[in-house]
Specification:
The chain is an all-alpha fold. The chain is about 70% helix and about 0% strand.
Length: about 70
Amino acid sequence: MQAVTRIFEQSAGATKAAKAAGGDPDNVDLANKAATAENEAVKAFSEAIKVLEVQGLEIDTTEIAPVGN
């Protein structure tokens, strides 16, 4: 579960960075890096859900909205 918690924390941090950098055209490089980190966090989140499901937990992801919505 510690790995899953870390993934959630990384995802939240990447989302915050993307939102902060995204509004400033001078920070295009930073925004791109944040978006890449955010995409990686989403992939890791998906993998974590798969691991938990393999362990027998049922996870309803129907109400998990994409970032930015």
